[in-house]
Amino acid sequence: MDPNLLKKLNAARRERKAVIAVTDLGDGRDRLVHKGDAVAGDLGAALEAAFRTGKSGLASVEGREFFLNVHVPPARLVIIGAVHISQVLAPMARMAGFDVLVIDPRTAFATPERFEGTDLADDWPEDALKERPLDAFTALVAVTHDPKIDDFPLIEALRAGCFYIGALGSKKTHARRVDRLGEAGLAASLIGRIAAPIGLDIGAANPPEIAVAILAQVVAALRQRTPAAVPARDEA
């Protein structure tokens, strides 16, 4: 690979940007395509499919052969709130292959003893997310029940296009949340992306079961790419 192209590829990977290194097998020329770049015709369709699946492979386009080397950032789960549900959800998500970050400014909750082996930030989300901003390959789960902690990352997640956004709370709690986010200037269609009540409707009755319901919904959003269509569980 051309050294300049490799430099650009490494930069994209550091910045958690999805790219595909496209090699024309006929003449050996390489180029880098970022997700969202306009590429016309059948090659564009092949690139979009490769971004969606995350799998590298050959593409035959109008009698020419291309190798599409896909580089997609690893899926990440950001949990807002170091609560009992998070203590179960974090290790489960790591086992499922997610990079996990738990954020909670309440230092009595966000302790290494309660979250052994988990990346933990005992800062306000406003500060923690400056260092590690959200992106389209991140799922955000807000579970503190505290608008002062949850609302900012929810707004950031909606603006960043996170592939999944969920928030704990009853329907009444979420209705108040919708009002607040609307007052913050977010469109109703955008707010509608939030899965609330959070998690698949499996009748979950305790923190471990709720964590299972949440992780299942996150995985469905990641693999099916249809987060708004995933049914939510009901909460009291």
TrEMBL record:
InterPro entries from the UniProt entry: MoCofactor_Util/Proc, XdhC_Rossmann_dom
Domain XdhC Rossmann: 77-218
Gene3D superfamilies referenced in this protein's UniProt entry, alphabetically: NAD(P)-binding Rossmann-like Domain
Protein name: Putative sulfurylase large subunit (Molybdopterin cytosine dinucleotide biosynthesis)
Native species: Hoeflea marina
